[in-house]
Amino acid sequence: QFPHVIAVDGKQPRNVIRDTPFGDQMLLELARDAITATHMGADDVSDLLLVGISGGDYAGHRYGPDSVEIHDYFLRLDEQLGTFVDELDQQFGEDYVLILTSDHGDSLGDDGRWGHGFTVFPEVMRIPLIVHVPSSLRARLETDLAGVAFATDITPTLYALAGETPADLGPQFG
Question: What 3-state class would DSSP assign to 146?
Fold first, then answer.
């Protein structure tokens, strides 16, 4: 359970939502509303919804990467993302693309290192990349699970899934 009082009579708490698990919960609720309000998936035109979940980064900076607050945050986020994906499955079947990634990793004590932003050790530079692609679109992609993927590969992959060919800007651009 998140161990802090959110509202205090007569005081304005700093970043009351941003540094808690509740901001990202509200963001996922807003994403659900956007899907419904814009009728995503109702026609043959590809829709794109980008959701930036960043409360864990803020909470990690404020409370520490191994704090009870960050553990609570990620337990809640896991449940919230699971619910969100279940709702996507119910609404669209498997006919959607979902990409989960991060802008950085974190040192959690590896060789005495903590945090991020000061080093380029592997635990900071390697980020998760989880991709769900419907079976109807998988033929448009080449997958090399033994290879290295970069964040810059995401945009060209979305172009390929949409049936478009992105400009080749060189190897550092995906």
Answer: coil
